[in-house]
Amino acid sequence: MTLHARLVVTRPAFRLDIELHVGAGEVVALLGPNGAGKTTALRALAGLTGLSEGGHIELDGEPLHTLAVEHRPIGMVFQDYLLFPHLSALDNVAFGPRCRGASKADARRVAAELLDRVGLADKATARPRHLSGGQAQRVALARALAVRPRLLLLDEPLAALDAHTRLSVRSRLRHDLAGFDGATVLVTHDPLDAMVLADRLIVVEHGAIVQQGAPAEVARHPRTDYVARLVGLNLYRGTAAGRQIKVGEVPFNVADPLEGPAFLAFSPAAVALYRTRPDGSPRNLWQGVIEGIERHGDSVRVHLGGPIAAFADITPAALADLDLTPGRQVWVSVKATETHAYPA
Ligand SMILES: Nc1ncnc2c1ncn2[C@@H]1O[C@H](COP(=O)(O)OP(=O)(O)OP(=O)(O)O)[C@@H](O)[C@H]1O
């Protein structure tokens, strides 16, 4: 079961144009900032938004975009689940099969199996208002699976949950998705959801794909500022000549030799700050200006301006020792071994 699609949606002030290939059993996450076009892409797959010229969707080699919404072999989980409030969990799940002509008994049998699969057999008679957020999410997933879809679409599946519930529901969802043999496309702007749930990430910005790959690969080698911020890295574009990359006027020594346009990335924790020029002049040294200071978990994140902008994570003790305040000039250094360089 494979999905091949080119999703083109043209609106007056926005154009989506992305190619999507998802294999059987594969979970692909569309990740991107607000307004990037993720929901539009999902709605286009579901048939809720029409495709513009050039767009097409094939599932197992058969055109999907020519089918009416109700005939598409698609299961969808919406952000707020949209469970029917007056139906029990069982009847919510049985709804799809009933609509597709199954007898009441058959529909309920399928629904009971699915509720059992998502660990909610004991909630069959409960109405949605008596379910927790995590349980409602699982009922919505069971309902989407009840029509035996070949394509499963999930729109921000964990967004309605609080941070604590999210943690357990996330791993449960990963487990449930692993048992689905069709193609799954999910939309999220939470990098952690994407990393945990997906086999492959597709990063969308301004209606276009800017990067895709396995989660670990995307995290290690970000190619846009948005992705770098998501995974918490400093990212620059420069020009490499052997073991040196020039970012603006600042030369960086890097561990791996490279030629031509290149990305340079390093973690804020790899950045050291000094009040005076450090002895022995470590390589990758420049003078920056402190633009801001904020708490960041157990450390302090220093925003640096100057010839290149960077984030540095230092300990509260170092902040006090160095007496750092906004506007102050500091020496900034990064070890070559702490940088990652890769072709742009
Ligand atoms: N029904 C609509 N009519 C016109 N423009 C729309 C419509 N829905 C969305 N848009 C616009 O299309 C663009 C993409 O929106 P979309 O909702 O797909 O983004 P998104 O990546 O899902 O964002 P978010 O994470 O905020 O949900 C935005 O510029 C949005 O304003």
Give an overview of the whole structure:
The structure is a single chain. The protein is an alpha+beta fold and 344 residues long. It has 2 domains: 3-230, P-loop containing nucleotide triphosphate hydrolases (Rossmann fold, 3-Layer(aba) Sandwich), CATH 3.40.50; 234-343, RNA polymerase II/Efflux pump adaptor protein, barrel-sandwich hybrid domain (OB fold (Dihydrolipoamide Acetyltransferase, E2P), Beta Barrel), CATH 2.40.50. It is 26% helix and 37% strand. It is built from 9 helices and 18 strands. The protein has helices at residues 38-46, 89-99, 104-117, 133-145, 163-178, 191-197, 215-220, 225-230, 316-322, and strands spanning 3-11, 14-22, 27-31, 56-59, 62-63, 74-77, 151-155, 183-188, 200-205, 208-213, 234-247, 250-266, 271-274, 285-296, 299-305, 310-314, 329-334, 339-343. The strands form 4 sheets. The protein has a 6-stranded mixed β-sheet, sandwiched between helices. Strand 15 (299-305) and strand 16 form a beta hairpin. It is elongated, with a radius of gyration of 25 Å. Adenosine-5'-triphosphate (ATP) binds at residues 11, 14, 32, 34-40, 189.
